[in-house]
Design goal:
Elements: H1 2-31, H2 36-62, H3 69-87, H4 93-119, H5 124-143, E1 154-155, H6 163-186, H7 188-198, H8 200-205, H9 210-233, E2 238-239, H10 246-259, H11 264-280, H12 288-303, H13 306-314, H14 317-337
Helix pairs in contact: 1-6, 2-6, 2-9, 2-10, 2-11, 3-4, 3-5, 3-9, 4-9, 6-7, 6-9, 7-9, 10-11
């Protein structure tokens, strides 16, 4: 019971920090104090946070390796943007954008179901290769359809909008995604999913429907990827399927691994760092990717060092709060003895 309460407090703290971060960003954005560079990064970074947290459902919670997340993102992006273009001028933006996100999520979830039914019979490297192939198939199909713009891309200029309009939707989507994953981890279904990750045979022996839970996680992750893609598409005046190839899937997987399997806060921090770092290094154009690669290697080495793990764990806001509270109690006890 004490462990469960500790997990709940940690999750609430993570949500509170996320909400506070978006509140600060909103104040800077709407007051005009935010730089143009940071403004242009707000929505892409937020969408990568959603992608990383949703992929963590599959990789961290379920323990399966998927390299097709970018395909589900592109499915949601094109379906959501097509609906937004159709509704443009007929319904207000405050209704149109959430509807396009919902439509994008549902189409991506259907895509996840279609891909997951045969693919989830496989495990490990085989599943990774199949999902990677499905991502490339989705990209090729979208590129060769006339109503998606073909190779020239879909013209989304009529529904293009800036970060000032999209930030509230992005903040809500990030918070909902984090909240769903937190609740899923603590639920009965979450424990069943993690038991499949730890020992599939033992999970089956106690009556857990492995196929059902694996497919449910895959579809749920695809839904959030599609919703993120639909919102992401509104940041551009033209979108192309070739932009969402296997490199994007691998980048999201790197974020998940770097942030820690099953860690929501880690995925959020890793997504922010890895997406902002290349922009921060633009001044060092010739050495930008070299520095980026070196930072990745150093962080991976650091996260696998037990001493550094303990050090960074001590810097967690929850740990610092407990230390401060314990210090205050000791001071009161010392004062009462005097």
């Amino acid at each position: 019971m004490a462990k469960k309460l500790k997990t709940v407090h940690k999750d609430l703290l993570t949500l509170a920090i996320l909400a506070a971060l978006y509140a600060v960003l909103a104040v800077l954005l709407y007051s005009g104090a935010m730089s143009r560079q940071l403004m242009n990064m707000l929505i892409p970074v937020s969408m990568y946070v959603v992608m990383a947290v949703s992929l963590n459902l599959v990789v961290g919670l379920l323990g399966e390796l998927s390299l097709g997340h970018a395909g589900f993102m592109s499915l949601g992006l094109f379906s959501g943007c097509l609906l937004s273009l159709f509704l443009n001028g007929q319904v207000p933006e405050i209704v149109r954008i959430p509807l396009s996100m919902l439509a994008g999520g549902l189409v991506a979830a259907i895509g996840g179901l279609i891909v997951g039914l045969p693919a989830l019979r496989l495990r490990g490297d085989y599943l990774a290769i199949v999902t990677l192939a499905c991502c490339e198939i989705i990209k090729s199909v979208i590129t060769n359809l006339n109503f998606t713009g073909g190779a020239l891309g879909l013209n989304t200029a009529p529904v293009y909008t800036n970060a000032k309009h999209l930030l509230p939707y992005a903040a809500v989507l990030v918070l909902i995604t984090a909240l769903v994953m937190m609740n899923l981890k603590r639920s009965k279904q979450g424990r069943a999913i993690m038991s499949i990750r730890d020992n599939r045979i033992a999970a089956e022996s106690v009556g857990i429907n492995v196929t059902y839970y694996k497919l449910a996680v895959f579809v749920l992750a695809a839904f959030f990827a599609g919703a993120a893609g639909a919102l992401y598409g509104h940041c551009f005046a033209n979108v192309k399927a070739v932009s969402f190839d296997y490199n994007v899937s691998i980048e999201i997987l790197v974020i998940v691994v770097l942030g820690g399997m099953g860690s929501i806060g880690g995925s959020v921090v890793a997504a922010i760092v890895l997406r902002t770092l290349p922009e921060m290094l633009r001044e060092f154009q010739n050495f930008r990717m070299l520095v980026y690669a070196i930072v990745l290697i150093l962080v991976m080495l650091a996260t696998n060092n037990p001493r550094l793990k303990q050090f960074f764990a001590g810097l967690h806001p929850g740990t610092l709060w407990k230390k401060w509270k314990a210090g205050r109690i000791k001071e009161k006890e010392a004062g009462s003895h005097e």
